[in-house]
Amino acid sequence: MSRSPMIVRTLPALRRALDGFRARRVKTALVPTMGALHDGHVSLVRLAKRRARKVVVSIFVNPTQFAPTEDFGSYPRTWKADVARLAAEGVDLIWNPDVKTMYPAGFATRIVPGGPAMAELEDRFRPHFFAGVATVVGKLFTQVRPDFAIFGEKDFQQLQVVTRMAGDLDLGVKVLGSRTVRECDGLAMSSRNIYLTPAERQVAPVLYRAMKESATRLRAGDDIKAVLAGGAELITEAGFVLDYFEARHAESLAPIASVKDGPVRILVAARLGKTRLIDNLGV
Protein backbone atom coordinates (compact mmCIF):
# COMPACT_ATOMS: atom_id res chain seq x y z
CA MET A 1 0.00 0.00 0.00
CA SER A 2 1.33 3.46 -0.96
CA ARG A 3 2.34 5.79 1.83
CA SER A 4 0.57 9.13 1.49
CA PRO A 5 2.89 12.13 1.17
CA MET A 6 2.66 14.97 3.64
CA ILE A 7 0.68 17.79 1.98
CA VAL A 8 1.47 21.34 3.11
CA ARG A 9 -0.07 24.58 1.90
CA THR A 10 1.36 27.25 4.23
CA LEU A 11 4.88 28.50 4.73
CA PRO A 12 4.95 27.82 8.50
CA ALA A 13 3.87 24.22 7.88
CA LEU A 14 6.50 23.85 5.15
CA ARG A 15 9.23 25.18 7.43
CA ARG A 16 8.26 22.82 10.24
CA ALA A 17 8.35 19.84 7.91
CA LEU A 18 11.69 20.81 6.39
CA ASP A 19 13.19 21.47 9.80
CA GLY A 20 12.31 17.87 10.61
CA PHE A 21 14.18 16.67 7.52
CA ARG A 22 17.21 18.77 8.35
CA ALA A 23 17.29 17.59 11.94
CA ARG A 24 17.99 14.14 10.49
CA ARG A 25 20.73 15.61 8.27
CA VAL A 26 19.37 14.03 5.11
CA LYS A 27 19.69 15.44 1.61
CA THR A 28 16.55 16.84 0.02
CA ALA A 29 15.57 17.08 -3.64
CA LEU A 30 12.87 19.33 -5.10
CA VAL A 31 10.85 18.57 -8.23
CA PRO A 32 8.96 21.74 -9.26
CA THR A 33 5.77 21.04 -11.26
CA MET A 34 2.50 22.64 -12.26
CA GLY A 35 0.65 19.36 -11.72
CA ALA A 36 -1.21 17.39 -14.41
CA LEU A 37 1.52 14.82 -13.87
CA HIS A 38 2.54 12.24 -16.46
CA ASP A 39 5.32 9.66 -16.85
CA GLY A 40 7.82 12.42 -17.61
CA HIS A 41 7.22 13.92 -14.18
CA VAL A 42 7.52 10.46 -12.62
CA SER A 43 10.96 10.11 -14.19
CA LEU A 44 11.98 13.37 -12.46
CA VAL A 45 10.78 12.03 -9.12
CA ARG A 46 12.73 8.82 -9.62
CA LEU A 47 15.91 10.74 -10.38
CA ALA A 48 15.29 12.85 -7.27
CA LYS A 49 14.97 9.69 -5.16
CA ARG A 50 18.31 8.44 -6.47
CA ARG A 51 19.98 11.68 -5.39
CA ALA A 52 18.33 12.42 -2.05
CA ARG A 53 16.69 10.74 0.95
CA LYS A 54 13.75 13.16 1.01
CA VAL A 55 11.82 14.27 -2.07
CA VAL A 56 9.60 17.35 -2.19
CA VAL A 57 7.31 17.92 -5.19
CA SER A 58 5.76 21.34 -5.62
CA ILE A 59 2.44 21.66 -7.44
CA PHE A 60 1.70 25.26 -8.31
CA VAL A 61 0.24 26.63 -11.54
CA ASN A 62 2.25 29.84 -11.69
CA PRO A 63 0.21 32.76 -13.09
CA THR A 64 3.21 35.02 -13.69
CA GLN A 65 4.57 32.84 -16.51
CA PHE A 66 1.31 33.01 -18.51
CA ALA A 67 0.45 35.92 -20.80
CA PRO A 68 -3.19 37.13 -20.72
CA THR A 69 -3.84 35.30 -24.01
CA GLU A 70 -2.44 31.97 -22.73
CA ASP A 71 -4.07 29.03 -21.00
CA PHE A 72 -3.71 29.75 -17.26
CA GLY A 73 -7.44 29.32 -16.64
CA SER A 74 -7.74 26.13 -18.67
CA TYR A 75 -4.39 24.56 -17.78
CA PRO A 76 -5.15 20.95 -16.74
CA ARG A 77 -5.51 20.46 -13.00
CA THR A 78 -5.67 16.83 -11.82
CA TRP A 79 -5.05 17.06 -8.08
CA LYS A 80 -6.38 13.66 -6.93
CA ALA A 81 -4.58 11.77 -9.70
CA ASP A 82 -1.39 13.72 -9.02
CA VAL A 83 -1.42 12.87 -5.31
CA ALA A 84 -2.03 9.20 -6.12
CA ARG A 85 0.92 9.16 -8.55
CA LEU A 86 3.24 10.80 -6.05
CA ALA A 87 2.12 8.45 -3.27
CA ALA A 88 2.90 5.49 -5.49
CA GLU A 89 6.41 6.88 -6.02
CA GLY A 90 7.04 7.36 -2.30
CA VAL A 91 7.29 11.15 -2.38
CA ASP A 92 7.74 12.58 1.11
CA LEU A 93 6.10 15.99 0.81
CA ILE A 94 3.87 17.88 -1.62
CA TRP A 95 4.16 21.67 -1.44
CA ASN A 96 0.87 23.07 -2.76
CA PRO A 97 0.67 26.80 -2.02
CA ASP A 98 -2.08 29.02 -3.40
CA VAL A 99 -1.47 32.20 -5.38
CA LYS A 100 -1.87 34.47 -2.33
CA THR A 101 0.82 32.51 -0.49
CA MET A 102 3.28 32.80 -3.35
CA TYR A 103 2.37 36.35 -4.31
CA PRO A 104 0.89 38.09 -1.26
CA ALA A 105 -0.66 41.55 -1.44
CA GLY A 106 2.01 44.12 -2.23
CA PHE A 107 4.37 41.62 -3.86
CA ALA A 108 6.69 43.79 -5.95
CA THR A 109 9.91 41.88 -6.65
CA ARG A 110 10.82 39.68 -9.57
CA ILE A 111 13.90 38.07 -11.06
CA VAL A 112 14.64 39.11 -14.64
CA PRO A 113 17.21 36.67 -16.04
CA GLY A 114 19.65 37.33 -18.86
CA GLY A 115 22.06 35.00 -20.63
CA PRO A 116 20.19 31.94 -21.93
CA ALA A 117 16.87 33.69 -21.18
CA MET A 118 17.65 36.08 -24.03
CA ALA A 119 18.58 33.55 -26.73
CA GLU A 120 15.83 34.58 -29.16
CA LEU A 121 14.04 31.24 -28.78
CA GLU A 122 11.12 31.00 -26.34
CA ASP A 123 11.81 34.55 -25.19
CA ARG A 124 11.11 35.87 -28.69
CA PHE A 125 7.58 34.46 -28.63
CA ARG A 126 6.86 34.60 -24.89
CA PRO A 127 8.78 37.65 -23.61
CA HIS A 128 7.04 37.48 -20.22
CA PHE A 129 7.87 33.83 -19.61
CA PHE A 130 11.33 33.59 -18.11
CA ALA A 131 10.88 36.38 -15.58
CA GLY A 132 7.82 34.50 -14.32
CA VAL A 133 9.69 31.20 -14.24
CA ALA A 134 12.81 32.62 -12.61
CA THR A 135 10.81 34.42 -9.93
CA VAL A 136 8.71 31.43 -8.94
CA VAL A 137 11.64 29.01 -9.06
CA GLY A 138 13.75 31.44 -7.04
CA LYS A 139 11.00 31.51 -4.42
CA LEU A 140 10.71 27.71 -4.42
CA PHE A 141 14.46 27.36 -3.96
CA THR A 142 14.50 29.74 -1.00
CA GLN A 143 11.35 28.20 0.52
CA VAL A 144 12.48 24.57 0.27
CA ARG A 145 16.28 25.07 0.28
CA PRO A 146 16.89 21.72 -1.41
CA ASP A 147 20.26 20.18 -2.11
CA PHE A 148 19.08 19.23 -5.62
CA ALA A 149 16.38 20.45 -7.98
CA ILE A 150 15.27 18.29 -10.90
CA PHE A 151 13.98 19.69 -14.20
CA GLY A 152 13.13 17.95 -17.45
CA GLU A 153 15.20 18.51 -20.57
CA LYS A 154 12.06 18.95 -22.69
CA ASP A 155 11.96 22.59 -21.57
CA PHE A 156 15.63 22.95 -22.45
CA GLN A 157 15.93 26.72 -22.46
CA GLN A 158 14.15 26.83 -19.10
CA LEU A 159 16.63 24.29 -17.72
CA GLN A 160 19.55 26.47 -18.83
CA VAL A 161 17.94 29.61 -17.39
CA VAL A 162 17.29 28.01 -14.00
CA THR A 163 20.76 26.48 -13.87
CA ARG A 164 22.38 29.83 -14.57
CA MET A 165 20.17 31.62 -12.05
CA ALA A 166 20.99 29.14 -9.27
CA GLY A 167 24.71 29.57 -9.93
CA ASP A 168 24.69 33.32 -10.42
CA LEU A 169 22.70 33.99 -7.25
CA ASP A 170 24.60 31.45 -5.10
CA LEU A 171 21.37 29.70 -4.14
CA GLY A 172 23.15 26.54 -3.01
CA VAL A 173 21.04 24.26 -5.20
CA LYS A 174 22.47 21.76 -7.68
CA VAL A 175 20.16 21.81 -10.71
CA LEU A 176 19.96 18.50 -12.57
CA GLY A 177 18.39 17.89 -15.97
CA SER A 178 16.53 14.67 -16.71
CA ARG A 179 16.13 13.26 -20.20
CA THR A 180 12.89 13.83 -22.10
CA VAL A 181 10.38 10.99 -21.79
CA ARG A 182 8.57 10.22 -25.05
CA GLU A 183 5.54 8.35 -26.24
CA CYS A 184 6.17 5.26 -28.37
CA ASP A 185 5.98 7.37 -31.55
CA GLY A 186 8.48 9.95 -30.29
CA LEU A 187 6.16 12.73 -29.12
CA ALA A 188 7.58 14.34 -25.98
CA MET A 189 5.27 13.88 -23.00
CA SER A 190 3.61 17.13 -21.95
CA SER A 191 0.60 18.10 -19.87
CA ARG A 192 -0.62 20.14 -22.84
CA ASN A 193 -0.77 17.12 -25.16
CA ILE A 194 -4.36 16.62 -23.99
CA TYR A 195 -5.28 19.69 -26.06
CA LEU A 196 -4.48 17.81 -29.30
CA THR A 197 -7.38 16.43 -31.30
CA PRO A 198 -7.07 12.76 -32.39
CA ALA A 199 -6.05 13.89 -35.91
CA GLU A 200 -3.48 16.33 -34.53
CA ARG A 201 -2.11 13.66 -32.22
CA GLN A 202 -1.30 11.56 -35.29
CA VAL A 203 0.64 14.46 -36.83
CA ALA A 204 2.45 15.64 -33.68
CA PRO A 205 5.38 13.15 -33.84
CA VAL A 206 6.60 14.90 -37.01
CA LEU A 207 8.49 17.29 -34.70
CA TYR A 208 10.60 14.45 -33.35
CA ARG A 209 11.07 12.99 -36.82
CA ALA A 210 12.31 16.34 -38.16
CA MET A 211 14.79 16.68 -35.30
CA LYS A 212 16.09 13.13 -35.67
CA GLU A 213 16.58 13.45 -39.43
CA SER A 214 18.26 16.82 -39.00
CA ALA A 215 20.57 15.53 -36.27
CA THR A 216 21.61 12.63 -38.49
CA ARG A 217 22.39 15.00 -41.37
CA LEU A 218 24.35 17.35 -39.13
CA ARG A 219 26.45 14.50 -37.77
CA ALA A 220 27.15 13.49 -41.38
CA GLY A 221 28.54 16.96 -42.06
CA ASP A 222 25.71 18.49 -44.12
CA ASP A 223 25.39 22.27 -44.33
CA ILE A 224 23.64 23.56 -41.23
CA LYS A 225 21.41 26.08 -43.02
CA ALA A 226 20.26 23.48 -45.55
CA VAL A 227 19.56 20.96 -42.82
CA LEU A 228 17.48 23.40 -40.78
CA ALA A 229 15.58 24.53 -43.85
CA GLY A 230 14.74 20.93 -44.66
CA GLY A 231 13.54 20.23 -41.13
CA ALA A 232 11.42 23.38 -41.10
CA GLU A 233 9.85 22.41 -44.42
CA LEU A 234 8.95 18.95 -43.13
CA ILE A 235 7.26 20.49 -40.09
CA THR A 236 5.27 23.14 -41.97
CA GLU A 237 4.17 20.68 -44.66
CA ALA A 238 2.69 18.51 -41.91
CA GLY A 239 0.40 21.39 -40.93
CA PHE A 240 2.30 23.10 -38.12
CA VAL A 241 2.77 26.84 -37.80
CA LEU A 242 6.47 27.03 -36.99
CA ASP A 243 7.86 29.45 -34.41
CA TYR A 244 11.46 28.27 -34.64
CA PHE A 245 13.62 25.32 -35.68
CA GLU A 246 17.17 26.06 -34.60
CA ALA A 247 20.53 24.44 -33.92
CA ARG A 248 22.23 26.12 -30.96
CA HIS A 249 25.16 25.63 -28.63
CA ALA A 250 23.82 23.25 -25.99
CA GLU A 251 25.11 25.25 -23.03
CA SER A 252 24.99 28.93 -24.00
CA LEU A 253 22.17 28.56 -26.57
CA ALA A 254 24.16 30.88 -28.83
CA PRO A 255 23.76 30.46 -32.61
CA ILE A 256 26.33 28.23 -34.28
CA ALA A 257 27.74 28.06 -37.79
CA SER A 258 28.88 24.43 -37.64
CA VAL A 259 28.57 21.34 -35.45
CA LYS A 260 32.25 21.95 -34.68
CA ASP A 261 31.05 24.90 -32.58
CA GLY A 262 29.15 22.43 -30.35
CA PRO A 263 27.96 20.65 -28.31
CA VAL A 264 24.82 21.18 -30.38
CA ARG A 265 21.14 21.06 -29.50
CA ILE A 266 18.26 21.27 -31.98
CA LEU A 267 15.31 23.19 -30.55
CA VAL A 268 11.83 23.54 -32.01
CA ALA A 269 8.53 25.21 -31.17
CA ALA A 270 5.45 25.00 -33.36
CA ARG A 271 1.68 25.27 -33.17
CA LEU A 272 -0.64 22.51 -34.28
CA GLY A 273 -4.20 23.73 -34.15
CA LYS A 274 -4.60 25.39 -30.76
CA THR A 275 -1.69 23.56 -29.17
CA ARG A 276 1.85 24.87 -28.97
CA LEU A 277 4.47 22.12 -28.73
CA ILE A 278 8.17 22.50 -27.88
CA ASP A 279 10.93 19.91 -28.06
CA ASN A 280 14.68 19.52 -28.45
CA LEU A 281 17.30 16.91 -29.26
CA GLY A 282 21.03 16.66 -28.81
CA VAL A 283 23.18 16.22 -31.93
Report on this model:
This protein has about 280 residues and is of the alpha/beta class. The protein folds into two domains: about 5-180, HUPs (Rossmann fold, 3-Layer(aba) Sandwich), CATH 3.40.50; about 190-280, Pantoate-beta-alanine ligase, C-terminal domain (Pantoate--beta-alanine Ligase, Chain: A,domain 2). It contains ten helices and nine strands. The strands form two sheets. It has a six-stranded parallel sheet, with helices on both faces. The chain has a three-stranded antiparallel sheet with strand order 7-8-9, covered by helices on one side. The longest helix is centred in the middle third of the chain and has 16 residues, at about 130-145. The radius of gyration is 19 Å and the shape is globular. The N and C termini lie far apart (about 45 Å). About 40% of the residues are buried.
